[in-house]
Here is the input.
Amino acid sequence: MDVKPIHSEKQHRAALKEIERLWAAKAGTPDHDRLEVLATLVEDWEEKHHPIYPPDPVAAIRFRMEQLGLDRKALEPSIGSRARVSEVLSGRRRLTLDMIRRLHRELGIPADVLLAS
Here is the structure.
């Protein structure tokens, strides 16, 4: 098995192409072993060179509202008054720990995303 660490974008693209070729490999075969090793190498490369940062808490709330078809009024039980919801969504007020807990429980937004505020 001639597999080497990924050191460039060109090698990254080649590894992705090889992963695509091996995608249907059966477990326990040399091709599947190669697929697993390449996937690990690509994951490591992407974490170092193309990290995906968590979304802004307000962006996450807005995204979840859109997914669920909610309006601002639906946030009042989790955040507070209409004015408080407006302040949070405009970025003028930070989320409190109680708000984070309720948003996590009621809307299923990961708490670690909401804590980034």
